[in-house]
Amino acid sequence: MNTLRHCALAAIVALVTGCAGLPAAKETAAMFSQPRATEHRGQDDLLTGGLGLAGLQSMLPPGFADAAHPTPAELRKRALWGNWRGIADLSPGGGYGSVYGSVAAVPGREFSAFARLAGAAQPHRVLVQLPDAFDAGKRCVVVAASSGSRGIYGAIAVAGAWGLPRGCAVAYTDKGAGTDYFDLDAGQGVAADGTLASADAALAFVPQPASGSGVAFKHAHSQDNPEADWGRHVKQAAQFALATLDAQLPQQAPFTFENTRVIAVGISNGGGAVLRAAEDGAPWLDAVVAGEPNVLAEGAGARSLYDYTTEAALLMPCALPQLGIPAIPGLDAKCAALAARGVLSGATADALQKDALAKLHAAGWSDAALRAGAISVGFDLWRAVAVGYASAYGRYPHDAHPCGYRYAALGADLQPRAVTDAERAAWLADGSGIPPGAGVGIIDPQSPADLGLSGLQCLRALWTGDGADAQRVRKGIAATRASAPRDGLPVVVVHGTDDGLVPQAFSSAPYVAMARAAGRDVRYWQVRNAQHFDGFLVLPHMAAAYLPLLPYVYEALDRVDAHLDGKGALPADAVVATVPRMGKPLAAEHLAMPR
């Protein structure tokens, strides 16, 4: 970074606490550090790192000249590739770039920093993309939180793809999660530029204690319960964007919440984060679009992610064969073991499966959600979420999981081994923010003969039990509960009726009901034949049955933007009667976009 860029970023840091028009220091209470600035033009760009649609569609990620020592530019390009593919359906025939969306090159600059909330033990990442074609007349910022536990580029296909081509600056937050893993054996973590450094350097995450064996990661082991502060993370990213615009476009300064349009958008956990940001009493947000939000509201049917995740981890594998879905290997033994433990009842394998399905139905699961949830069974996602979130909600360090789990690289024998230099070096780009993946696996304290059931029952008991650990975890979950959005704030919620990871019956439906009971005007699109993971539509059987959700998020953004311009009404509620593709290339008639 040259001196000019360093001074520009230093100005941003100073502006955050002193710029006229920004919220009071008591509210912002955050300190920005480790500022960086990079330019992305020519063979590089903000949206795809120069990969374009063909590069993003490649089955092989962008390579590193030196696998053990990738450059920050190489890590960024690979992170963009991974996050695009993890969120959007880019498959031939999937319609991206033709029916909806764009990956056209957007030249510009990026500005990033570590941010810290008052009282937090660990920093989180914020990043602003400023296109060269920033619309000085419109003065718009799109702010987004990463979906899932993804890193700082986790919302590139959501916010960047919509905002950058329209001349908006786009601000991102990893909301206290991200891919900043820490190798406890090597004593190394991830620095601001994505390269590795020791624990005594300025890292995005240093666990406490920074000793032991295996791997720690920020979402689970920060001891901050970041989900409780997701709304504050979103607001802080917007503040960083305004300060960046002030520093980089001084002729147009000041940029304030009063004179700059700020639209928040996110999907999944990112959707939950922007709904939490919508609660803020100050009128800093102009509109919110939340897709398939993981949000916990008051009211009938509302359930926490941890509650239904631990339930699904135990029961869903046994229930799925009753819906015509092939059984996983060893299912009969697992269901019989659950019966022996009193979880299921029945004299035959068929009876046990029926009992599991009946229990899930009674808990509010629809058959559509269960069918779509089968892919989470196949990928062991229910256990992965439960293990990591138990640590996060309970604020446990990496060496004190209440059910004895820990994380490490695993060998072919599934035993812990040392992380390789190449694995560690690629964490920023290849990680999803919650293992298993990127060379890191979950270590179950029980023997394989246990079939993983003791751990799953322990995880479930943290929700249903009365012990100290259960009370600790539930206290953390209670801190994530959402309240109604600010009165008068345009909010559009978009959710697939077949979502099997965050079922709408447990999340968006109760949220919308709660908000409307409080007198808020929230618009709700329910999209038939849409599930949670657009990225999984590359699988032929998924593409045949399901439609992508991203087109509806983009359309909702179009509608609220036009409304803010005075050119249209907010979208009306809709149950969107989509038409499954059944193997055909995606066309507009399949989407049946509300009009």
Can you offer a commentary on this structure?
The chain has 21 helices and 17 strands. The longest helix is centred in the middle third of the chain and has 19 residues, at 230-248. It is globular and about 75 Å long. The chain has helices at residues 3-18, 25-28, 52-57, 72-87, 156-163, 218-221, 230-248, 269-277, 305-319, 331-340, 349-362, 367-378, 381-394, 421-425, 427-430, 453-464, 468-478, 508-517, 540-545, 550-564, 588-591, and strands at 31-40, 108-116, 124-131, 140-145, 169-173, 182-183, 188-190, 196-198, 215-216, 261-267, 287-291, 406-410, 416-417, 441-443, 491-496, 522-527, 574-576. Strands 1-2-3-5-4-10-11-15-16-17 form a ten-stranded mixed β-sheet, with helices on both faces. A three-stranded antiparallel β-sheet has the order 13-12-14, with no helix packed on it. The model is unreliable at 1-8 and 15-30 (pLDDT under 50). The protein has 595 residues and is an alpha/beta fold.
Shape, principal axes of CA atoms: globular
Computed structural class: alpha/beta
User: How big a fraction of the residues is strand?
Assistant: 5-15%
Spans of at least 5 consecutive residues whose pLDDT stays below 50 are 1-8, 15-30
Number of helices: 21
Summarize the amount of helix as a percent range. 25-40%
State the strand order across the main sheet: 1-2-3-5-4-10-11-15-16-17
